[in-house]
Amino acid sequence: MPTESCSPQTESDQLAAAAEKQRKLRPLMAAFAALAAYLGLALALKPDLTAHVTDSLAQVRETVSGRFRKLPGHPLDLNQATAAELQQLPGIGPVTAQDIIRFRERSGPIRRPEDLLALPRFTRRLLERIRPYVVVEAR
User: Which residue segment(s) compose the domain that 24 sits in?
Assistant: First the structure.
């Protein structure tokens, strides 16, 4: 029986094997690099901005325009404010302002700012954004 002798690989065979291994790993390394770039970008963005990705275009427009809107000089009474005055509040656009007016017409005077949470699309986060600018005066 002839026995094959295990001859050591030559240097050129070792280099060829290493090159082949690198060629096979190249797509995997590219995928990891893309993932790292994506995660780096995601971490660089502020959490409050990433939340807007899932919001509707109208809400994003309201938020962006709200950053440049002049805020009210004095707290607004939620039971007396007009739609134009309500739109001065951060995050309140024409639709939400009209919803607030319709709510107080149908339900009676607003007793506390938390009553607005009964409105559709009105979140605790929005309530906390407008809280410094609103009051509810006893009637």
Answer: 11-44
